[in-house]
Amino acid sequence: MSDSVLKVTDLTKTFDQFTAVDQISFEIKKGEILGLLGVNGAGKTTAINMLLGLITPTSGRIDVFGKDLAHHRIELLNRSNFCSTYTSLPGNLYVWQNLRVFGTLYGVKNLKQRIDEVLTLLDMQHHKNSVSGHLSAGEATRLNLCKALLNQPELLLLDEPTASLDPDIADKVRGIIRQYRDDHQATILYTSHNMKDVEEVCDRVVFLHQGKIIYAGTPDQMVEHFEKENLEDVFIQIARSGDVLPA
Ligand SMILES: Nc1ncnc2c1ncn2[C@@H]1O[C@H](COP(=O)(O)OP(=O)(O)O)[C@@H](O)[C@H]1O
Ligand SMILES: [Mg+2]
Fold first, then answer.
1. Within 10 A of 79 (CB to CB), how many other CB atoms are there?
2. Residue 12 has pLDDT above 60, yes or no
3. Who's near 180: CB < 8 A, 6+ residues apart?
4. How far is the CA of 12 from the centre of ligand 2 (A)?
């Protein structure tokens, strides 16, 4: 059996006449962290939303744990979870209530204990009884990460998880994500436009530009390929030149 956890084949999403994701194909192996990079509007969130089954692909195929997502959505999503900086949990619930609701939906065993574990991991214990809607942006992101880890997912989709975090917390979160991967052999898809994140966290990257993959490889290979000093410089070149040739 192959150790591919997520396999995307010729995935495309078109909104009216506009193609947001254009025939992308990539794979992530068990225990691997893949960075999905690209400027604003490149198609990262649209791709993740298809992987979550939130929007239906126009064409193409998504396989998770060797099964077609279109036909096994509930089973596959039970073994996955996600976190997005741009979606927030119900603001009128206390932090512990939100985690209890989501933990119950995922059928988490020993839920009380697991809630305490994830709150401690994300340094959020002191906010257990806070109203979720009153949290700062960084705290809300950490609550979202607590939710994402509740069911000990084998596949974790993270859409800009460090976007609203200060450098200190962002650093801690990067450490937590790597540790989680190491402890659980988890497979992680990580979108970001913070190149420091990517250099530190990702084993491999896929660079999206106007919905197409223009590069796939390790961060080091990418820097070498574009003949730059670091990933930040690669990113800036791609963002500023409309005529990047596919790798
Ligand atoms: N529901 C939608 N209807 C029309 N256009 C959309 C919709 N969702 C996203 N888009 C467009 O698709 C492109 C990719 O968006 P998105 O996937 O959010 O990019 P990213 O996450 O890389 O910043 C953008 O141009 C965006 O405006
Ligand atoms: Mg996005």
1. 15
2. yes
3. 149, 156, 186
4. 16
pTM, to two decimals: 0.93
Cβ contact 190:174 at 8 Å: no
Nearest CA residue ID for atom 5, ligand 1: 15
Residue 247: the pLDDT is: 46
pLDDT in tens, 76-112: 999 999 998 878 899 999 999 999 999 999 999 999 9
Element (H, E) at 28: strand 18-29
Nearest CA to ligand 1 atom 9: 46
Distance 210 CA to ligand 1 centre (A): 10
117-154 tens-digit pLDDT: 999 999 999 999 999 999 998 899 999 999 999 999 99
Domains and their CATH numbers in the chain: 1-79+156-247 (3.40.50.300), 87-152 (no CATH)
Single-letter residue type at 187: T
User: Residue whose CA is closest, atom 2 of ligand 1?
Assistant: 15
The reply to whether ligand 1 has any atom less than 6 angstroms from the CB of 36 is no
The rounded Å distance from CA 141 to ligand 2 centre is 15
